[in-house]
Amino acid sequence: MMSKFEAQALHPVEGFGIDTQLVTLGRSPELFNGFVNTPVYHGSTVLSSTVKELLGRTQPYIYGRRGTPTSAALEQAICGLEGGAGAVLCPSGLSACTTALLSCLKTGDHLLVSDGVFGPVRHACETVLSARFGVEVTYYDPMAGADIALLIKSNTRAVYVEAPSSHTFEVQDVRAIADVAHQHGMMVLADNTWASPLFFQPHAHGVDLSIQAGTKYLVGHSDAMLGTVSASAAAWPALKALHGDLGLCVGPDDIYLALRGLRTLGMRMRTHQENALVIAGWLKSRPEVHRVLHPAFDDCPGHVNWQRYFKGSSGLFSVELQDFSQEAVEAFLDGLSLFGLGYSWGGFESLALPFDVSAIRTATRWQAAGPCIRFHIGLESVADLIADLEAGLNRLVATDVRRRA
């Protein structure tokens, strides 16, 4: 139950637009001598005034790991944006994924996981859930929709959705999956990092546990690690209990950076979206590109689902190149001046990452026409990014020995 002190920090937002919510949620200047931002509380021990207060745990905060005004501000903001019954913070996006999974599974249970899931989550399912804890895992076609009913067993307890898929961007029919899952008493988990709560509301479409790698768009500046999980009323007690039992907490400085990033999330997301759509469209017109995988394009698998459930798109998408050599792809990427080569995404800077998921897919077959590259489009000038990519594509063609011949 939220304390009186915590409740004061959750300003009512009914009738407010999303940008107003981003600015106001989790802020209570009146509690902190008028300071606009919630202070950063560095602390472990919290003193009580009396033995009764100490043993009865009647004060708002009892120990740094169990929460501070800093962590409460972000939790309340996430809860308000996602529309959940409660939210927890985790040390990383992957930690948020695994915490959510562990909160609704036990030995002997069966879990359904999208075949397009984020690679480290697949690894955790196979090494932690399956090998160590005895949870049976079955991967399903991201485009299965209500047909996941064919994979449900008597011990199936949860389904893990990622919409769109990591790297390959299939958009699942979240509502159809959730309806089938709930008919069988299952929990529905969804990774909402790509869209953020601005462009997709998982709880409104039947998701019980909505996960974000806050490292990415929430923080937005590539300078902190963070994960969040928002829970429905049905999922909240188990999530809250497990989070506490595992001793999970996030450093106050990282939480502060997420709170700071939250205030500009709307402006940044709209710019990421606009820039990415322009650049994805430009890449689609290039002869070196076989296919662009972007949920907002009508030839992307599940585009109809994106139209049905999403309010927008982010800066992340992939391309399949034509059949170029590895040497040519390296020349293309190595010479880029505005696109960094690195993992993660969601920051202000543009990134490029070559990938091949063909070896890890098990329920579906991934066969690309040529090498694949995932792009994150940042906040730079679109004209400058296109010029950088154009020079790179020229290097791609010039370096490919077969095409020179």
Helix content: 25-40%
**H/E element sequence:** HHHHEHEHEEHEHEEHHHEHEHEEEHH
| Major beta-sheet overview | 7 strands, mixed
Mean pLDDT: 94
Strand order of the main beta sheet, please? Answer: 1-7-6-5-4-2-3
Number of helices: 15
Tell me the span between the first and last alpha carbons.
71 Å
Secondary structure class reads: alpha/beta
Strand content: 15-25%
Radius of gyration equals: 22 Å
List low-confidence stretches: 1-12
User: What is the 3D shape?
Assistant: globular
- Oligomeric state, counting identical vs distinct chains: single chain
How many beta-strand elements? 12
How would you describe what is shown here?
The protein has 405 residues and is an alpha/beta fold. The protein is 37% helix and 15% strand. The chain has helices at 4-9, 18-24, 51-56, 69-82, 93-102, 119-130, 174-183, 196-199, 236-245, 252-262, 265-284, 303-309, 326-334, 382-399, 401-404, and strands spanning 86-90, 110-114, 136-140, 156-162, 187-191, 209-212, 227-231, 289-293, 316-321, 339-341, 350-355, 372-376. β5, α8 and β6 form a beta-alpha-beta unit. α5 runs parallel beside α6 (119-130) and α13 (326-334) packs antiparallel against α14.
Which key terms come to mind for this protein?
405 residues; alpha/beta; 7-stranded mixed sheet; 5-stranded mixed sheet; 15 helices; 15% strand; disordered N terminus
What's the short version?
This protein has 405 residues and is an alpha/beta fold. It is built from 15 helices and twelve strands. Helix 7 links the parallel strand 4 and strand 5 (187-191).
